[in-house]
Amino acid sequence: MSTTNAEKTGAEQTGGDNASGQQAQSTVPFAVPSFAGEVSDAVVKVLDSGWVTTGPQTGAFEQDFADYLGAAHVVAVASCTTALELCLRAMELPPGSPVLTPSLTFCGAINAILHAGHRPVLVDIDEDTLVPSVATTAAAAARTRPAAMIVQNQGGYPVDVPALTEAAGLDRTRVIEDAAHGPGAARDGVPVGANSYAACFSFYATKNMPIGEGGAVASSDQGLADRVRAMRLHGMSKDSWRRYLPGGSWRYDVKTVGLKANMTDIQASIGRAQLGALPGWQQLRAEIVARYDQALKDLPGLVLPQRSLDGVQHAWHLYQVRVQNRDALIADLEAAGVGTSVHFIPASHMTSYQEILGADECATVPVTDRVAEELLSLPLYPGLSVDGQDRVISAVTEALRTRS
Ligand SMILES: *Cc1c(COP(=O)(O)O)cnc(C)c1O
Known about the structure:
about 400 residues; 13 strands; seven-stranded mixed sheet; binds pyridoxal-5'-phosphate; alpha/beta; three-stranded antiparallel sheet
């Protein structure tokens, strides 16, 4: 996060900010994490318990998150990026396998494919939903014979996983959902991750359920969950908590080479406290979105996020608008004290991936190339006060009115 905690909730603002009177001049950061009131006590308890790494809190968080999603198995890990890599490794694909991925994604997802020893194959997006469609997925699959695919819930929009799986010609056990934006989203009443072979979540500072850092894999498959669980901690057959428990032994084996990607009990205790607040935060996100929609809908040159909300529950991780001369609007908003971000700079625009994938591969995603130049994410988080929302709305309105 490149922002300061300058924008406070109403409750915090009355708490004696020594910059009183300066609130009107303060900035509206792009993102500010919210933390439930129970977090501090939970962390202190873990610190006092004498066990701070992966242990009972991690197990309890896995159960709580599985209950929240309605998933059979959850394995908590260090990040969504490592979750993606662990799932790919757990699939035991031949080295160098082609793996479909949107180009419009976070670099961590591309790195996960490369670190697992495979080859990213870029998939273009549908202009309205900002995620790959059945047509773009089938086109990418026709260029290569993919061994696996990562799909992504861009901004909180739940992709139609079965349709894309079929378009790619893959079995469901070869599809990983990058659900970093997914908590709170559902399709036809099924929450993202509830019935997935492998859904990877992020608890990074700016995500819908922040821990600070952290991730999780949700799976309907016991075997996949077991392999990820062993590989999140070096591939050791027993983690130190299980060796420490009564009857535990110092002995362990390494059957597969794993990563150091476990979650600590400190993180897990924060996650457990945060989960209780998540439904309320999702509600606040939806309310802010409704306000933005209403206030921005008639502005010249501004395309609001599309929502084919038929059977779709959006998680509203991001409020992504499209606008010509996007970079100029970013500068105008910054001058007005409003932070923004862009999701994402396509993988095909990054130097290292251009070198690895080659120019021909990077030229396969024309819609992504065009749309990515227009994408802009406005501030959207539960702690964004009504005053902050109004400042975003008036800054955008002002900037676009001056333009036309
Ligand atoms: C944030 C993000 C990630 C990475 O999450 P980490 O937990 O920071 O590793 C992966 N994919 C997408 C789409 C993201 O937005």
